[in-house]
């Protein structure tokens, strides 16, 4: 269990599956996550398994399961990974839970796993997500435009770097 200010991150348990499946088939969530264009987590876990991935459940301190956050494509040589997050319960959006969860996840990634950087891909139009990531120290690295049958989407690549030894020493 990894603790933040308002959330706890913990491994997935069998009892979480129905809720995760409900979110997997939530079209509004999938549209925000870009499961057609950015990353299909179900597909990813089917092909890659959990060898280079880690899923943690996000729950409130009160014990309500509100989402999950994943590190996928963990590459040990360059020590980087991609992060994907979803708060499945809409009533918990915009209340700081995502920021807290991402900060805890970054702590795990940098201090426990020893990664040097964590990147993510997000639709430029997903302003709440972009803002949340910026607050957690992610910086924009680039943008690509993907042409789809129903128009264009702009995808922003963002990256957070592990704190330097000096920064850690300075607290
Ligand atoms: C993206 C997500 C993880 C963010 O978590 P969250 O708990 O909702 O976000 P937070 O409350 O921590 O931070 C959101 C920030 O964006 C701001 N914000 C909220 N709605 C906004 C909007 N429509 N436009 C611009 N900023 C917005 C908030 O004010 C807050 O910033 P502030 O603290 O400076 O005021 C969560 O909303 C989510 O899972 N959404 C659905 C799935 C999704 O989009 N996943 C990301 C895929 S890349």
- Name every ligand kind in the structure: coenzyme A
- Overall pLDDT: 93
CATH superfamily: Gcn5-related N-acetyltransferase (GNAT)
Helix content: 25-40%
Total domain units: 1
Q: Record the strand order, biggest sheet.
A: 1-2-3-4-5-6-8-7
Outline the low-pLDDT stretches. none
The biggest beta sheet is recorded as: 8 strands, mixed
In brief:
This protein is α+β, with helices and mostly antiparallel strands and 171 residues long. The protein has helices at residues 17-24, 27-33, 41-48, 97-112, 127-135, 165-170, and strands spanning 2-3, 7-11, 54-60, 65-75, 80-87, 117-123, 139-148, 151-161. The chain contains six helices and eight strands, in the order ββαααβββαβαββα.
Topology:
Elements: E1 2-3, E2 7-11, H1 17-24, H2 27-33, H3 41-48, E3 54-60, E4 65-75, E5 80-87, H4 97-112, E6 117-123, H5 127-135, E7 139-148, E8 151-161, H6 165-170
Parallel strand pairs: 5-6
Antiparallel strand pairs: 1-2, 2-3, 3-4, 4-5, 6-8, 7-8
Describe it.
The chain has six helices and eight strands, in the order E-E-H-H-H-E-E-E-H-E-H-E-E-H. It has 171 residues and is α+β, with helices and mostly antiparallel strands. The chain has an eight-stranded mixed β-sheet, sandwiched between helices. Bound molecules: coenzyme A. The site of coenzyme A (COA) has 21 residues, from helix 2, strand 5, helix 4 and helix 5.
Characteristic key phrases:
171 residues, alpha+beta, Aminopeptidase, 8-stranded mixed beta sheet, 32% helix, 36% strand, globular, binds coenzyme A
């Amino acid at each position: 269990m990894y603790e933040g200010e308002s959330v706890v991150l913990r491994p997935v348990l069998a009892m979480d599956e129905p809720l995760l499946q409900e979110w997997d088939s939530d079209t509004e969530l999938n549209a925000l996550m870009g499961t057609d264009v950015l990353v299909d987590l179900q597909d990813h876990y089917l092909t890659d398994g959990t060898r280079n991935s880690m899923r943690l459940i996000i729950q409130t301190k009160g014990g309500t399961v509100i989402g999950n956050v994943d590190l996928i494509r963990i590459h040990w040589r360059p020590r980087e990974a991609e992060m994907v997050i979803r708060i499945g319960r809409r009533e918990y959006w915009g209340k700081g839970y995502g920021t807290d969860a991402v900060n805890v996840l970054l702590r795990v990634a940098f201090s426990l796993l020893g990664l040097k950087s964590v990147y993510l891909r997000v639709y430029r139009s997903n302003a709440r997500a972009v803002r949340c990531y910026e607050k957690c120290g992610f910086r924009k690295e680039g943008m690509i435009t993907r042409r789809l049958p129903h128009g264009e989407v702009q995808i922003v690549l963002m990256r957070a770097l592990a704190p330097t030894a000096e920064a850690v020493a300075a607290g």
